[in-house]
Amino acid sequence: MGISVQTNYASLVTQNTLQSTNASLSKSLEKLSTGFRINSAADDAAGLQIANRLNLQSRGLNVAMRNSQDAISMMQTAEGAMEEMTNIAYRMNDLATQAANGTVTSADREAMNTEYGQLGAELQNIYNNSNFGGRSLLAGADSFTSGQITFQIGSTASETLDVNLAGQLSAVGNTLGQFDILSDISALKSQAESDYQSELDLFAATAASATTTSGLSDGTDFTASGTFGSYTDYSDLKAKADAGVGTAVADLTAVETAAAASVTTEIVGNTDGNYVAGASGVALGTSTYASVTALSAGLTDQASATAGMATMATFIDDLGAARAQFGANINRLDHTITNLGNMTENLEASKGRIMDTDFASESGNMSKAQMLMQSGASMLSASKMVPQLAMSLLG
User: Fold this and answer.
1) Which UniProt keywords apply (predicted)?
2) Is the N end or the C end of the chain the one with fewer CB atoms within 10 Å?
């Protein structure tokens, strides 16, 4: 090529090369400063799309691991509550077994029954009030008892765990419902005894002055027959009967029989078998009791204690079945978390190979670009000598 003043070809080539080298150096500096090989789609369009898909899955798996851990915590809370219910049931069974023995007295059974009733109330308290972050666990619309609960344990909508303990917990709830009845029976017994005492006082005090004495609403009236003594109340009648005064012995038997019949009629005379004497009623569904003396609750007699043993054995079995379901799902989630961790590890490694800067390689590229920049700048300066040669030829 000829020597020219108008066009400095050497300078143009050097400038173009220097511009390319500068762009390469800028890319290397960007990659080294951010740590990413791909900083924009232009760096690697296909690689960016693959990396985004891997990143979506990896982030989803990380959330799924937290979901699984929360699910474990939730079920462990429920199972822990049922463990305490099991401990209570063991103690109630001990009390029932002890009360079923013929060596204990009525006073002994009454003391046992007091503890038995309180333990039953605590079973209901645990069952009704155990919750996880405000969400009911064993009772209520959103609890395990209501039906299937679904846990999201993967990065896609299909990766879920369905836990359904409605059957097992319903059996537990049915047994606990019996303790509600026992509580109602206790209230019924108290009300009936109170009304029985009122009837005794009423019939004893008024029978001598009236042919018929009205008792409880819908109850049995007392009709005096023959010669009936005069008494202020039942205590007065009882004292005179013990002393053998007049007709007090016969009168006492008549009054006690009529009072018991009056209260019994009040209990069984209602279509639902409820005791509704006066203004206070005790609802017991279809439970019917033939007499005041038949009213009992919990461990008040040997037969009920024996029945309590059978109830507790079934109840403990039901608790065990529900706890086994919780335990099985907790163990499954432990393995799920391990697998999610393995998947996340490998996804992150794959994404890193696409997105991350290889510092060893890129630092070499940067050094090469820096040297080319320095040499290019030097050559650009030397290219100014070409026009000067033309001037020397004119001189």
Assistant:
1) Bacterial flagellum, Secreted
2) C
